[in-house]
Write a structure and sequence with these properties.
Layout: E1 4-11, E2 21-25, E3 30-32, E4 45-53, E5 63-71, E6 79-86, E7 93-97, E8 100-103, E9 112-116, E10 122-129, E11 136-139, E12 142-145, E13 150-152, E14 155-158, E15 168-176, E16 180-190
Parallel strand pairs: 8-16
Antiparallel strand pairs: 1-4, 2-5, 3-4, 5-6, 7-9, 9-13, 10-12, 10-15, 11-14, 15-16
Length: 202
């Protein structure tokens, strides 16, 4: 996740103008903020802007506490607050495949796999277009993938009994969470052997 900017209101509750100095603590997060700001008069407020970036391996939904300490230049007037920050979902999916899907007359599975490069769980729908009449598919056309997971496509392609063995060009269509759409054209070839399960080795 790329992070965000948050704003915190700093209120002067003392009886004379004071320049606040800040210390922020949030393990593993990248923080960018001003160490101090112009003096604030009693009863007035100012806005502290903080740029926060979560760790690269952070998962969607994880919550961390940002501790903000404000003090005067002499160390007095210490004020402290904790702000919970939740990592938002970032969806990213990669589609990998061989250019050829080899099948026998009894069928076969492809060398096709997906990799969830985001930080959140992703629901995926798979469809195939361009199949000739009489061809069918069996297997799962829906998938659920955790962040960082790789998974092979478990769809078996069954040719029609009257297939003449000529190559067939089909389109593989992937729809994933976050509005992600992926497409890949693959040539179906007749072979003496084929995979009866996904050949992907995790």
């Amino acid at each position: 996740p790329e992070g965000a900017q948050i704003s915190v209101i700093v209120e002067q509750r003392g009886n004379h103008p004071t320049r606040p100095w800040f210390t922020l603590v949030m393990p593993e997060w990248n923080l960018s903020y001003p160490e101090t700001m112009d003096p604030i008069s009693p009863g007035e407020t100012a806005t502290l802007l903080i740029n926060v970036t979560p760790p690269q391996d952070g998962l969607a939904g994880e919550v961390s506490l940002l501790r903000i300490r404000a003090r005067e230049s002499d160390g007095g007037g210490l004020g402290e607050v904790s702000v919970p920050l939740r990592i938002g979902a970032e969806h990213a999916m990669e589609l990998h495949s061989a250019n050829v899907w080899r099948v026998t007359m009894e069928g076969g599975m492809p060398l096709v796999w997906l990799e969830n490069k985001g930080n959140a769980l992703s629901n995926i729908d798979v469809s195939i277009t361009g199949l000739p009449d009489g061809w069918t598919t069996t297997g799962s056309e829906t998938m659920v993938m955790a962040a960082g997971e790789k998974a092979g496509l478990e769809i078996n392609l069954n040719p029609a009994d009257d297939w003449d063995g000529n190559n067939v060009l089909i389109s593989l269509n992937i729809s994933a969470a976050g509005g992600i759409i992926l497409e890949r054209d693959i040539s179906i070839q007749l072979s003496n052997s084929s995979w009866n399960s996904s050949p992907l080795l995790n």
